[in-house]
Structure formats: C-alpha cells, structure tokens
Hints:
Blueprint: E1 6-11, E2 16-21, E3 25-26, E4 37-42, E5 47-55, H1 65-76, E6 84-87, E7 91-92, E8 103-110, E9 113-120, E10 125-132, E11 136-137, H2 144-147, E12 150-151, H3 163-172, E13 175-176
Antiparallel strand pairs: 1-2, 2-13, 3-4, 4-5, 5-10, 6-8, 7-8, 8-9, 9-10, 11-12
Amino acid sequence: MSVELCSVRPLFGGAISTVFPQRFQDVSDIRQVPDHQEVFVDPSRDESLIFELLDFKTEVGDIGSASWFLNDLAREQDAEGFQLLEQSEVVEAPGLSHRNIPAVATTAIGEMVYVANLRLKGVDTDVLVTAYEPILINPLSESADAVGSGLAVPASQSGKMLMCDVIKQSLSTFKVNDWNLFGSSA
Length: 186
C-alpha cells in the first residue's frame, strides 16, 4: 500500500466532507460541473472520483442498489460486454442516519469502475460515489495527450493508492456537516 498525502476535502460548499489523496484535482476549477456532482481527477493517471447527489430511487431496493446504479452507468455509456465483478451486502451506516432514520451502503465493482451507493433515507437521497481506474487508454481519448495511450501503469507500480483503497477511504470518512444541503425539510 502506498503512503500518499491525503486531506479532508469539502464537498458541496463544505456541507459534506471526506478524505482522499491530494493528487485528485477539482474539475470545477477547469470546467463547469453540474450542481449535484463533485468531480475530481488525477490527470497524470486518468483516474477520477465522482460524488453525486440523486433523488432517492424508491423503486430500487437496498440489496444490490450499487449494482443497479453500476448497470445504469454502463447502459448510459454504451459499455459493451459490461460485467459486474462483485457486489457487497447491505451495511448500515450509523454515522449517516438522520432523525433516527437509518442510512445504508452497498458497493459494486465492474471492470475499471468501483461504485458505492450511500442511501440517506432520512433526506430521500442516494449518494453515488464512483471511482474510475483505466486499464487501457484509447489514443483518441482527450487524456491520451497527458498520460499516453495504451495500457495504464498500475497504481501499485507508480506508488499511488489503489482506486479501490481511494473509494474505501472516501466512504469511511464521508461526513454530512450540514443536513440543510438536502432542503428545508432536512
């Protein structure tokens, strides 16, 4: 495991905070990002970490919710041959309960992508955390100029924290500082 400098990162104007490596840059410093998203990239590795606030999907059960979101992402991106590699059980997230309404989390892993779904039931919000780790960089990709095309160098070989560990750390340190972010009813 690498020893990488990490820090507390404010999300959504500081209403949420989490910890992840400083090598990830805030995309909103470069281009416009939708208000319901916080996007961070490591341009030297073509990796990204995305935090997204979504309306609670009542039609999706807690069991397999991260898998549902991962499959939805694959459909949106026309990911041919997408395979779900792993999914977790539902885990209660006691530090994220609001008004005594429990919050739960599930995770799912696909090729090149890790997804976590934090279900903040007390404020009817699904928080989707997505970490992308490229295996192969297409020569036509915008990032090919910066990192080169072809096989990506594994994080372990470049002294960087693995993306599976980046998302685990961001989830274990995820904290809601201001529940008013979710509306006046929060």
